[in-house]
Amino acid sequence: MSTVVILDYGHGNVRSALRAIESTGVTARITSDFDDALSADGLLVPGVGAFGSCVSALRSVRGDQIIERRLAGGLPVLGICVGMQILFASSTEHADTNNFAGLDQWPGIVRALDAPVLPHMGWNTVRAADNSHMFQGIAQERFYFVHSYGVTSWDLPDHDYLEPPRVSWSHYGEQFVAAVENGPLWATQFHPEKSGQAGLTLLANWVSTFSEKS
């Protein structure tokens, strides 16, 4: 049976994520243990709170190293909400002069959405990327968002020798990145664990990328 580690670094809805991921049939556990997180079939990185404090807490458990090593070995990682935002280059959230640095897996700046009311809280649709595996069977469903910041442009150029990431979008005041599928690295701005059956199906789609191989 496949194993999923939910990385515990003090900034995430780990219990609700655990219940949701267990519904896919995998063995799941919450831990900050470096070796355990490194060797699991799948790693889920939740995120709640301010960008800077999330990055700092993640680094305190060597989460940045875990993610980097897993991706270098082609091992799946799923980031959720701020767990997605920290994968980008930087954020303006609570930044005075210099932006807070992220993990820089993707270029892009996380900034406040240009919307009349923040946070963006509630159910919203997603414009799924073409040939998305993440949204297979649920492309027309709605998902649950809670955030004030997001990435509003995608600046990673395509390369002839690499499959381009599949980027899905949503809209609240302006368009923003709702999800990314980039080889072993997946991420969602919304909360699959709070998105009912559609969210559970998305998690099952993620698990299917490695459970069939393990």
What do you see in this structure?
The protein is α/β, with parallel strands linked by helices and 214 residues long. The chain has a single domain, classed as Rossmann fold, CATH 3.40.50. The protein contains six helices and 13 strands. The strands form three sheets. It has a seven-stranded mixed sheet with strand order 2-1-3-4-13-12-11, sandwiched between helices. The longest helix has 16 residues, at 196-211. The model has no long low-confidence stretch (mean pLDDT 94).
Briefly say what this structure is.
With 214 residues, the protein is of the alpha/beta class.
- Tell me the domain tally: 1
Order of helices and strands: EHEHEHHEHEEEEEEEEEH
Separation, N- and C-terminal Cα atoms:
8 Å
Annotated CATH homologous superfamily: Class I glutamine amidotransferase (GATase) domain
Number of beta-strand segments: 13
CATH C-level: Alpha Beta
Keywords summarizing the entry:
single chain, 214 residues, alpha/beta, Rossmann fold, seven-stranded mixed sheet, four-stranded mixed sheet, globular
Task: Lay out the secondary structure.
Blueprint: E1 3-7, H1 14-22, E2 27-31, H2 34-39, E3 42-45, H3 51-60, H4 63-72, E4 77-80, H5 82-85, E5 88-91, E6 100-101, E7 106-112, E8 120-125, E9 142-147, E10 149-150, E11 166-172, E12 174-182, E13 185-188, H6 196-211
Parallel strand pairs: 1-2, 1-3, 3-4, 4-13, 5-7
Antiparallel strand pairs: 5-6, 7-10, 8-9, 11-12, 12-13
